[in-house]
Amino acid sequence: MKKGAKLLTAIIVLGAVYTGTSWYVGKEAQATIEQMVQRANDRLTAALGVNVPENGFKVAISEYKRHVFSSDVVYTLQMQDSQGAPVEYLLSDHLQHGPFPLGALQSGHFAPLMALSRAQMIPSVATQKWFDSLQGQSPVVATTRVTFSGEGNSVWQLKPLAVKEGGDSLKFSGGVINATLSNNFQDSVVKGTFEALEYASARSGDSVQIHGIVLGSTTNVAGEPSTVKSSSQAVAEQFTLASADSVPVQLSKVAINLDSQQRNNQLEGALQYSLGGIRLGEADFGSLTAGFKGSNLDVQALTDLVVTYDRIKALHNLGPDDELELTPDEAAQLRNKLWAVLDSQPTVSIDPFIWKNGQGESTLKLAVNLARPAGSDASEAALLLPQVIKRLELNLAIAKPMFIQTFSQFQGVPGGNGNAAMMGAMVFDMYAARLGRAGLAVQAEDKLSTAIRYENDSVEVNGKAMSVPEFLQRAISAVM
User: Which Pfam families match (predicted)?
Assistant: First the structure.
């Protein structure tokens, strides 16, 4: 009896201790979740500007019910559609508190956890059709494990979607997203795979098909103040755009990469597009790589410029084809916002731009250093353009055989032979001769190239210095 009483007492004590521990862990889990939501909004603000929350893009905790062994949470992702109307996506989360959540033990995970999350999307106006297509089932479910050491792992399952309305149809294959968190939940590695996304309009005859989709993202935070480095990728094996009144556009091996580094309001970024194959109907236009870079970008100032422009445009209540005519006061507002963007002396560039086909390749590189002009009170910003462009470098090379083939294909001759090829060669030779006589380009080994540099109100073309008026005069004479 004594041993039984001791065992019962031990069980009661352990139960009380675990109950208290679970309650405390639940409290810590709530604080961690609130911190993560705040951090997500802070990153949105840092990446997209201080006005992002006010403009509707925000993650929020709509409801938090904390119990002893579990909690029930509702998250809201708020944004605006293209017309500015509010859109909400809702996520319901059942959170089992650690240190040993029952669901984790049942799945064979015996290591201590802060929490085990089982979340699913719940209906909203924006997602109701998705629910209807699945007979009321949740289209998104997620399981997340969160440790005490600031790490976590999350698996999101997205179910297929098939919707038809008014002659339009949308199909989504569904897919899986895996996310890993570390460094006190500040660093992340995310990867998503989706088989297909298709849209078709019976009314217009337009359709879009994207197959073999892979999305990825990596974020690292270090230092004080924090430097946030991120890298995002979007890849598709095949992209097809078809229209009733034009030939289909087929892109293969499509890849988009975005790398950025942000510290305080200063942002550096590099965006690159890669198209492994480009076809317009039966014509093969080869492959294309295009890179765009920017540095010394003031995110706050850039966002203020965009928000100010959008606000002014909204006040004019323009139609789709109407042209915005600014009042003197509105022009001054936008000009001042632009000068604030230029205060940080940003640099933008195109590097690389490489277009290849079966006959060769053409390349372009452009780098522009910008600065706030000294005469910032001038009413005509165009007059200050030479001061805005502090430095410019352009390098361009066009291969003649490639030009001929591309010209022929645009004339409807896929092989690049016959009269279309002769016409392409004549056009190339004519402009090559004009540019050569003007001293703006050189031709060697079937390649036309030029190297232009502008700085301190002076232009250098292929090593020869000239004034800006002289350069403009030569350019006009070459194209007229």
Answer: DUF945
Q: CA–CA separation, 169 vs 166, rounded Å? A: 8
According to DSSP, the β-strands at 86-97 and 152-158 are unpaired
197 lies in some domain: no
Helix (H) / strand (E) element for 2: namely helix 2-48
Overall domain count for the chain: 2
Q: Could you tell me if 346 and 355 are in contact, meaning their C-beta atoms sit under 8 angstroms apart?
A: no
Of 333, 304, 341, whose CA–CA distance to 54 is shortest?
304
188 assigned to some structural domain: no
Q: Report the helix count and the strand count for the chain, using DSSP H and E.
A: 9, 23
User: Are 151 and 290 in the same domain?
Assistant: no
User: Which one-letter amino acid corresponds to residue 446?
Assistant: D
**pTM for the predicted model, two decimal places:** 0.84
Residue 382 CB partners (closer than 8 Å, separation 6+): none
Strand, helix or coil at 69? coil
pLDDT (0 to 100) of residue 28: 86
Q: Is 418 exposed, middle or buried (0-12, 13-18, 19+ CB in 10 A)?
A: exposed
Please choose, from the candidates 120, 153, 114, the residue with its C-alpha nearest in 3D space to the C-alpha of residue 26.
114
Give pLDDT tens digits for 360-404: 999 999 999 999 887 555 445 445 667 788 999 999 999 999 999
* Residue 180 Rama label (left phi>0; alpha psi -120 to 50; beta): beta
Q: Does residue 3 belong to any structural domain of this protein? A: yes
In terms of C-beta distances under 8 Å and separation of at least 24 residues, what long-range contacts does 331-336 make, across chains too?
A: 331/379, 333/308, 334/305, 334/308, 334/309, 335/376, 335/381
Please tell me the chain's helix, strand, coil percentages from 3-state DSSP, rounded to the nearest 5: 30, 45, 25
In a domain, 221, yes or no: no
